[in-house]
Amino acid sequence: MTVPAPDALLAAAHVVSVPMRVRFRGVIHREALLLDGPAGWGEFSPFLEYGPDQASRWLAAAVEAAWEGWPAPVRHHVPVNATVPAVDADAVPGVLARFPGCTTAKVKVAEPGQALADDLARVAAVRDLLGRSGRVRVDANGGWSVEQAADALAALAVHDLEYAEQPCAGVEELRDLRLLLARRGVEVLVAADESIRKAEDPLRVRDLGAADVVVVKVAPLGGVRRALEVVDACGLPAVVSSALDTSVGTAAGVALAAALPALDHACGLGTVALLEGDVADPSLLPNEGALPVGMVAADRALLDRWAAPPDRAAWWQDRLLACHGRLTAGGPR
Ligand SMILES: O=C(O)CCC(=O)c1ccccc1C(=O)O
Ligand SMILES: [Mg+2]
Prior knowledge:
- The chain is an alpha/beta fold.
- It has 12 helices and 12 strands.
- It folds into 2 domains: 6-69 and 301-328, Enolase-like, N-terminal domain (Enolase-like, domain 1); 77-297, Enolase-like C-terminal domain (TIM Barrel, Alpha-Beta Barrel).
- The longest helix is centred in the last third of the chain and has 19 residues, at 310-328.
């Protein structure tokens, strides 16, 4: 991929700060730099704490979207899951109402400061609303030790889990957990999310037998094409998920999900519903449990409405330039 010159990137950039409806991943304002390029719109929104190596992959994904475009889709709609943040059980109906027609829900668990009882109550509430035919998965974001995960999943399994996403932080831990669950007769599949971030990761996950399913995100992997290679190398069923993107970044995830040869699970791409505002009109929101495939353009009025304060816009422009330097210096793959 040829990376545009710094001036071309800066000239194409719009920085926004969008409030979240509910705190998610500690984030209450989602900041993003949108790029208006010849092939369409791209989103550059690495989380604030990410260093330049990680963040430059997000830039590669944004440049792919805005200067190159995506591979051809093999489907026109992508089924999505509802995403339930670590809210109180009584807030679950309000969250699920934002995901019309979704029959799969992903529930955040193992939130710091909360107890297993909170997770059990939240998951029970979700199962209750979806009914027996719904699918319920949990995401611990690596918050449990192997023992904690085995105990928690044995308890949560009464609600019939589709899988548990990143129950423990490390790849070896995921492998050990799978062995322990099998020994204890707990039938819960394990998905790797944070363990799939770098080019060499998926092969490690596969070779160690650390997961049954892989979660892939376009931006951290450096674009739709790179993510397709990762899934192919891994040889495991894949679920595409968002990084809490605006509709522009979400469309890249939809493009990946639409280009995958096989797609057996709902994707975590309904998260625009967790944002209070967005850059596109209409927003890329689930309808009848699915999203349409296609490029999404940002809207000028909405870019103005959610424009970031000048100091934050300058911070993002500096970050863009730093990442540009990494990418053109050969950067991480
Ligand atoms: O998968 C989903 O349902 C939504 C996406 C999501 O949970 C997420 C969004 C931003 C950062 C991390 C994660 C995650 O899956 O851990
Ligand atoms: Mg996850």
